[in-house]
Here is the input.
Amino acid sequence: MNRYLLSAGALVLGTGSAFAHVTFETQEAAVGSTYKAVLRVPHGCDGKATTAVRVQIPEGVISVKPMPKPGWTLQVKKGKYEKSYQLHGQAVTSGVKEVDWSGGSLPDEFYEEFIFRATLAADLPAGQTLYFPVVQECDGVAERWIEIPASGQDEDSLESPAPGIKLVPRE
Here is the structure.
C-alpha cells in the first residue's frame, strides 16, 4: 500500500512541473498542413496576474492569423521570411513573426488559452520539434518560456522551456 501511495505521489509531483509551463494543447502537427495553435497559460507570475502574452513565430510557419480575445489588445509584428514559401500556388516571402496579446488581466488562479491559426510549410523537417518562444508578462514581472533544448538534451531538464510541436509527415 505504501509503495502504491509513493508511486502515485511521485507521479503527481512529476507531472506538476509540466502543467506549470506554457504549452500547446495539440503538440503534434503534419508538415504542409494548417495548424490551430491553442497556447495554454496555466497561471500568472509569482501570484501576479498575466497582462500580456507574446509568441514568436518560427521560420516555416506562415499565414498566421491570431484570434482576438475580448478585453485584450491584439497586435502582430510582420517581417520577411528567410526564404520564399508556396501557399495555394503563390510565393509568400513575408508575414507574421510575432503575435502579442496585451492589456488584459488573467489572475494567477485562473487558466486561459490564446489561439492562432497557421500553415506549416511543406519543407519543414518531419520528426523534429518546432519551438515557439513565449514571454508572459505579469505587472512588471516576466516569465520567459524561451529555452530550446540543445541536440540530445532532454526537454524536461529545462527550467523555462518554449512550447513546441512535433512535426510529423503529411499523410
About this structure: The radius of gyration is 18 Å. The first strand starts at residue 23 and ends at 24. The mean pLDDT is 89. DSSP finds one helix and twelve strands in the chain.
